[in-house]
Model the fold of this input.
Amino acid sequence: MRILRILPHSVGLIACLGGAALAADPVHVRGTVQAVDGSRITIAGNDGKTVALTLGDGWTVGGVAPASMADIKPGSFIGTANMAEGDANEALEVVVFPEALRGTGEGDRGWDLKPNSAMTNATVAEKVDGVSGPTVTLRYKGGEKKVSIPPETPIVTIVAAAASDVKPGVKVFAAGPLSSDGTTLTGGRLMVGKNGVTPPM
Done:
Protein backbone atom coordinates (compact mmCIF):
# COMPACT_ATOMS: atom_id res chain seq x y z
CA MET A 1 0.00 0.00 0.00
CA ARG A 2 1.15 3.50 -0.75
CA ILE A 3 1.32 5.61 2.43
CA LEU A 4 2.07 9.27 1.98
CA ARG A 5 4.15 11.51 4.15
CA ILE A 6 2.75 14.32 2.04
CA LEU A 7 0.99 14.17 -1.29
CA PRO A 8 3.71 14.52 -3.90
CA HIS A 9 1.62 15.78 -6.83
CA SER A 10 -5.72 17.74 -6.48
CA VAL A 11 -9.10 19.99 -4.71
CA GLY A 12 -8.78 19.04 -6.64
CA LEU A 13 -6.41 16.74 -4.50
CA ILE A 14 -4.07 17.00 -6.89
CA ALA A 15 -6.36 15.41 -9.44
CA CYS A 16 -9.08 15.43 -6.82
CA LEU A 17 -8.90 19.19 -6.46
CA GLY A 18 -8.97 19.95 -10.11
CA GLY A 19 -5.56 18.86 -11.29
CA ALA A 20 -4.69 16.58 -14.18
CA ALA A 21 -7.17 13.80 -14.87
CA LEU A 22 -6.67 10.29 -13.56
CA ALA A 23 -6.47 7.33 -15.96
CA ALA A 24 -10.20 7.75 -16.58
CA ASP A 25 -12.55 10.56 -15.68
CA PRO A 26 -12.66 10.49 -11.88
CA VAL A 27 -15.85 10.14 -9.88
CA HIS A 28 -15.98 12.12 -6.63
CA VAL A 29 -17.34 10.39 -3.54
CA ARG A 30 -18.00 12.35 -0.36
CA GLY A 31 -19.07 10.37 2.67
CA THR A 32 -18.23 8.33 5.75
CA VAL A 33 -16.23 5.13 6.06
CA GLN A 34 -18.81 2.47 6.86
CA ALA A 35 -16.60 -0.61 7.16
CA VAL A 36 -12.98 -1.68 6.88
CA ASP A 37 -12.16 -5.30 6.02
CA GLY A 38 -8.43 -5.57 5.55
CA SER A 39 -7.66 -3.29 2.60
CA ARG A 40 -11.32 -3.25 1.48
CA ILE A 41 -13.02 0.05 2.40
CA THR A 42 -16.77 0.64 2.18
CA ILE A 43 -17.95 4.25 2.01
CA ALA A 44 -21.50 5.43 2.68
CA GLY A 45 -21.83 8.38 0.33
CA ASN A 46 -23.58 11.60 1.28
CA ASP A 47 -25.80 10.98 -1.76
CA GLY A 48 -27.13 7.75 -0.24
CA LYS A 49 -25.07 5.46 -2.48
CA THR A 50 -22.52 2.98 -1.14
CA VAL A 51 -19.21 2.41 -2.91
CA ALA A 52 -16.16 0.33 -2.09
CA LEU A 53 -12.46 0.50 -2.85
CA THR A 54 -9.46 -1.66 -2.16
CA LEU A 55 -6.42 0.25 -1.01
CA GLY A 56 -3.31 -0.81 -2.85
CA ASP A 57 -0.83 0.36 -5.45
CA GLY A 58 -3.56 2.16 -7.38
CA TRP A 59 -4.37 4.43 -4.45
CA THR A 60 -2.70 7.27 -2.59
CA VAL A 61 -3.89 8.43 0.82
CA GLY A 62 -3.67 11.97 2.20
CA GLY A 63 -5.03 13.74 5.25
CA VAL A 64 -7.16 16.85 5.65
CA ALA A 65 -6.63 18.94 8.81
CA PRO A 66 -7.99 22.26 10.08
CA ALA A 67 -6.51 25.55 8.90
CA SER A 68 -7.71 29.12 9.43
CA MET A 69 -8.16 32.47 7.73
CA ALA A 70 -4.77 33.46 9.13
CA ASP A 71 -3.18 30.84 6.85
CA ILE A 72 -4.53 32.59 3.76
CA LYS A 73 -2.21 35.46 2.92
CA PRO A 74 -0.64 37.04 -0.15
CA GLY A 75 1.67 34.48 -1.71
CA SER A 76 -0.27 31.45 -0.41
CA PHE A 77 -1.26 28.83 -2.96
CA ILE A 78 -4.83 27.72 -2.34
CA GLY A 79 -7.64 25.75 -3.91
CA THR A 80 -11.19 26.92 -3.45
CA ALA A 81 -14.52 25.58 -4.61
CA ASN A 82 -16.55 28.69 -5.31
CA MET A 83 -19.78 29.91 -6.86
CA ALA A 84 -20.80 33.03 -8.67
CA GLU A 85 -23.07 35.17 -6.49
CA GLY A 86 -24.32 38.03 -8.62
CA ASP A 87 -21.25 39.89 -9.87
CA ALA A 88 -18.99 38.24 -7.27
CA ASN A 89 -17.62 34.78 -6.48
CA GLU A 90 -18.04 33.26 -3.03
CA ALA A 91 -15.93 30.47 -1.53
CA LEU A 92 -17.65 27.23 -0.51
CA GLU A 93 -14.41 25.89 1.00
CA VAL A 94 -10.68 26.61 0.92
CA VAL A 95 -7.69 24.25 0.89
CA VAL A 96 -4.37 25.88 1.81
CA PHE A 97 -1.68 23.89 0.02
CA PRO A 98 1.64 23.19 1.74
CA GLU A 99 4.56 24.82 -0.05
CA ALA A 100 5.62 21.43 -1.45
CA LEU A 101 2.33 21.28 -3.38
CA ARG A 102 2.46 24.81 -4.82
CA GLY A 103 1.14 24.79 -8.38
CA THR A 104 -1.03 21.71 -7.95
CA GLY A 105 -3.90 21.73 -10.44
CA GLU A 106 -3.39 25.41 -11.17
CA GLY A 107 -6.31 26.97 -13.02
CA ASP A 108 -10.07 27.48 -12.93
CA ARG A 109 -12.50 24.74 -13.94
CA GLY A 110 -15.95 23.33 -13.28
CA TRP A 111 -16.54 21.43 -10.02
CA ASP A 112 -19.34 19.34 -8.56
CA LEU A 113 -19.55 20.41 -4.92
CA LYS A 114 -22.69 22.32 -5.88
CA PRO A 115 -24.37 22.80 -9.26
CA ASN A 116 -22.46 25.37 -11.33
CA SER A 117 -19.60 25.59 -8.83
CA ALA A 118 -15.98 25.99 -9.90
CA MET A 119 -12.61 24.92 -8.51
CA THR A 120 -9.89 27.56 -8.59
CA ASN A 121 -6.32 26.61 -7.68
CA ALA A 122 -4.17 29.72 -7.66
CA THR A 123 -1.82 32.04 -5.82
CA VAL A 124 -3.27 34.70 -3.55
CA ALA A 125 -2.11 37.95 -5.16
CA GLU A 126 -4.02 40.22 -2.79
CA LYS A 127 -6.20 39.91 0.31
CA VAL A 128 -8.59 42.69 1.30
CA ASP A 129 -10.53 42.41 4.55
CA GLY A 130 -14.20 43.33 4.55
CA VAL A 131 -17.21 43.31 6.86
CA SER A 132 -18.37 39.89 5.64
CA GLY A 133 -14.89 38.38 5.41
CA PRO A 134 -11.88 38.92 3.18
CA THR A 135 -11.85 38.97 -0.60
CA VAL A 136 -8.82 37.43 -2.26
CA THR A 137 -7.53 38.05 -5.75
CA LEU A 138 -6.38 34.71 -7.15
CA ARG A 139 -3.90 34.57 -10.00
CA TYR A 140 -3.27 31.51 -12.11
CA LYS A 141 -1.68 30.95 -15.52
CA GLY A 142 -3.90 32.71 -18.02
CA GLY A 143 -6.33 34.29 -15.61
CA GLU A 144 -7.40 36.01 -12.41
CA LYS A 145 -10.43 35.69 -10.16
CA LYS A 146 -11.71 37.49 -7.07
CA VAL A 147 -13.30 35.28 -4.41
CA SER A 148 -14.85 36.37 -1.12
CA ILE A 149 -14.43 34.07 1.89
CA PRO A 150 -17.33 34.30 4.38
CA PRO A 151 -16.48 33.64 8.06
CA GLU A 152 -18.26 30.26 8.08
CA THR A 153 -16.26 28.89 5.13
CA PRO A 154 -14.49 25.58 5.94
CA ILE A 155 -10.70 26.06 5.66
CA VAL A 156 -8.35 23.08 5.68
CA THR A 157 -4.84 22.03 4.71
CA ILE A 158 -3.26 18.80 3.47
CA VAL A 159 -1.23 16.67 5.87
CA ALA A 160 0.31 13.20 5.97
CA ALA A 161 -1.99 10.20 6.37
CA ALA A 162 -1.69 6.43 6.53
CA ALA A 163 -3.96 3.45 6.01
CA SER A 164 -4.46 3.28 9.78
CA ASP A 165 -6.29 6.64 9.59
CA VAL A 166 -9.00 5.03 7.46
CA LYS A 167 -11.48 3.61 9.97
CA PRO A 168 -15.26 3.41 10.43
CA GLY A 169 -16.86 6.76 11.15
CA VAL A 170 -14.12 8.84 9.50
CA LYS A 171 -15.20 11.37 6.86
CA VAL A 172 -13.52 10.99 3.49
CA PHE A 173 -13.34 12.40 -0.03
CA ALA A 174 -12.37 9.94 -2.76
CA ALA A 175 -11.75 10.46 -6.44
CA GLY A 176 -11.13 7.78 -9.01
CA PRO A 177 -12.55 5.78 -11.91
CA LEU A 178 -15.73 3.85 -11.11
CA SER A 179 -16.30 0.23 -12.09
CA SER A 180 -18.85 -0.47 -14.82
CA ASP A 181 -21.41 -1.67 -12.27
CA GLY A 182 -21.06 1.56 -10.27
CA THR A 183 -20.09 -0.14 -7.00
CA THR A 184 -16.30 0.13 -6.80
CA LEU A 185 -13.69 2.84 -7.21
CA THR A 186 -10.80 1.20 -9.03
CA GLY A 187 -7.95 3.56 -8.10
CA GLY A 188 -7.24 7.18 -7.32
CA ARG A 189 -6.86 9.32 -4.23
CA LEU A 190 -8.50 9.08 -0.82
CA MET A 191 -8.49 12.14 1.41
CA VAL A 192 -9.13 11.35 5.07
CA GLY A 193 -10.47 13.85 7.60
CA LYS A 194 -8.15 14.04 10.61
CA ASN A 195 -9.25 14.96 14.14
CA GLY A 196 -12.94 14.92 13.21
CA VAL A 197 -12.56 17.10 10.12
CA THR A 198 -14.90 16.59 7.18
CA PRO A 199 -13.03 17.05 3.88
CA PRO A 200 -14.99 20.01 2.51
CA MET A 201 -14.06 19.71 -1.14
